[in-house]
Amino acid sequence: EDALFPHKPLSGRHVLVTAGPTHEPIDPVRFIANHSSGKQGYAIAAACAQLGAQVTLVSGPTSLPCPDGVTRVDVTTAVEMLAACEAALPADCAICAAAVGDWRVADTASQKRKKEGGAPPKLTLVENPDILATLSQPGALRPSLVIGFAAETETLEAHAIAKKRRKGCDWMLANDVGTGTNVFGGDQNRVLFLDGDTIEPWSAMAKTDIARSLAARIAARFSSSPR
Ligand code: CTP
Ligand code: CA
């Protein structure tokens, strides 16, 4: 197939991508979110589709259009994102680019919370499921290649190495999202690429170029394995 379609090296592969933020409700009109635009994840989904992959994009709330040739599943919360990912399996490759909310509100109110003249309400938070770690767990449905991102604001390399080990994923792209980097919402990104024990600093480039480089790596990784 590769010989016949050299420009579609991911044909016959199913790639699962998570992207965007999650919204964790406080009450019917308020939520906890983050600054993720979804741009990096959407660019990865588009790049994999361009290489011929069947792509499922599980997306939190963003303002981006669904890339050509990509099947998008819209979700709001982390719990919904995990369920949508599990429903999308099996996949050959999973790429977790979403900025998943780490916590959700324990006692979500069914009606709008009112000020009522008293003290501000106290929110009790509970930890959300870790989608990347869950997809990385050994098992029959584990994608053979699981890729995560690490968003850090300090000691990027050490944090990324530890995070990759903790999650159990195969590759990790670590980016500095500290103040002034303008990664959230911006079009540029700069990552460290971790595979096994090797760490490769990629030069700063457009998110679309990071996506194309990553898709090419994925294609190379799968080039010799049977479909
Ligand atoms: N991730 C996930 N599910 C979560 C939290 C994170 O799938 N509940 C994924 C992200 O999509 C990313 C990777 O895990 O690929 C790392 O996310 P990050 O927020 O950097 O790491 P955390 O493990 O949440 O650690 P912390 O935020 O405390 O640094
Ligand atoms: Ca986190």
Task: Report what the structure shows.
It is a single chain. Helix 1 packs across helix 5. The termini are close together. Strand 12 and strand 13 form a beta hairpin. The chain is globular. It is of the alpha/beta class and 227 residues long. Helix content is 25%, strand content 27%. The structure holds cytidine-5'-triphosphate and calcium ion (CA). Cytidine-5'-triphosphate binds next to helix 3 and strand 9. In the C-terminal section; belongs to the PPC synthetase family. In the N-terminal section; belongs to the HFCD (homo-oligomeric flavin containing Cys decarboxylase) superfamily. It comes from Asaia siamensis. Catalyzes two steps in the biosynthesis of coenzyme A. In the first step cysteine is conjugated to 4'-phosphopantothenate to form 4-phosphopantothenoylcysteine, in the latter compound is decarboxylated to form 4'-phosphopantotheine. This is Coenzyme A biosynthesis bifunctional protein CoaBC.
Task: Set out the fold topology.
Blueprint: E1 14-19, E2 24-27, E3 30-32, H1 39-50, E4 54-59, E5 70-74, H2 78-88, E6 93-96, E7 103-105, E8 125-127, H3 131-136, E9 145-152, H4 156-167, E10 171-176, E11 188-189, E12 191-195, E13 198-201, E14 205-206, H5 207-222
Parallel strand pairs: 1-4, 1-6, 4-5, 6-9, 9-10
Antiparallel strand pairs: 2-3, 7-8, 10-12, 11-14, 12-13
The structure holds cytidine-5'-triphosphate and calcium ion.
The site of cytidine-5'-triphosphate has 15 residues, from helix 3 and strand 9.
Considering the chains and any ligands shown, give keywords for the structure.
227 residues, alpha/beta, 8-stranded mixed β-sheet, 27% strand, binds calcium ion, binds cytidine-5'-triphosphate
